[in-house]
Design goal:
The protein is of the alpha+beta class. The protein has helices spanning 2-26, 29-59, 64-92, 103-106, 108-150, 195-198, 239-250; strands at residues 152-157, 160-165, 169-175, 178-183, 189-191, 206-210, 213-216, 220-223, 227-230, 233-236.
């Protein structure tokens, strides 16, 4: 939903920007808007084909020959479509009078520059987005690595800091004002820390299956779409976590 909203905002901004640029050419922002409205489908189609098909399928996979070939095809087709836009402008906006159209509007080379400026602007923004996503993923992987190296969960219990090895934890249960950590030992570790805080300190081998339960996936004996068995105890899987839990455990 957020992604769709960002796309809409981008193209609204592009429309406003191009309307302002061509408004000086047409000496009318209304005619400029109509012209941009005819040019926009070409820009949108070219941009999405380039950025969401050619780049990920060929350029990022280092298939440079096919990328170059298909980019040339795209350039030819987009130029041909721009000529149709010029024809439409000639018919609809200039009343079949070429003198009513500015040379800028009929210059296919300048229109191609405008079109591919929009395409590469979109590509630049996507590059920033991918770079941010990569940094975020790297940071997450580093955080996970640090958790594994640490090897234990630290919680405050009985006014002391208790260290519990990850491999010893079966599951964690939230019980209102406190949280119970079920381990290999007979006595559970009880702490007043929130379960939402504890899950952040655990590696990916631990799954949140319910607002009240976290399980160690390595200790799961059986599971179905609605429940999990850990150490002889059956725990419920809530609807919120059902898809993620079943996908992770199935793998």
């Amino acid at each position: 939903m957020i992604s769709i909203r960002i796309h809409i905002i981008f193209w609204v901004v592009v429309t406003i920007l191009l309307t302002g640029i061509f408004g000086k050419v047409f000496e009318s922002f209304i005619l400029s808007f109509y012209f941009v409205a005819m040019l926009l489908p070409v820009a949108v189609g070219t941009s999405y084909f380039f950025n969401y098909f050619l780049v990920p399928r060929y350029l990022l996979k280092k298939r440079y020959k096919k990328f170059t070939l298909y980019f040339i095809y795209l350039l030819i087709i987009s130029t041909w479509l721009e000529m149709w836009v010029i024809t439409g402008s000639f018919v609809l906006l200039a009343d079949l009078n070429a003198d009513n159209l500015s040379p800028v509007v009929t210059n296919i080379f300048l229109l191609a520059i405008v079109l591919y400026f929009v395409v590469f602007l979109k590509a630049f923004l996507l590059l920033i987005k991918r770079s941010y996503a990569t940094q975020k993923k790297t940071k997450l992987l580093k955080s996970e690595k640090n958790k594994f190296l640490k090897g234990y969960l630290t919680v405050r219990a009985d006014r002391r800091q208790a260290k519990i090895l990850f491999e010893d934890i079966h599951y964690i249960e939230s019980m209102g004002d406190y949280v119970k950590v079920i381990t290999e030992s007979d006595e559970p570790v009880i702490t007043r820390e929130r379960i939402s805080h504890i899950i952040k300190e655990l590696p990916e081998t631990f799954l949140r299956i319910h607002r009240s339960f976290i399980v160690n996936s390595q200790k799961v004996a059986y599971f179905s779409k609605t429940e999990i068995e850990v150490n002889g105890t059956t725990l419920p899987i809530s609807r919120t976590y059902k898809n993620e839990v079943n996908n992770r455990l199935s793998q």
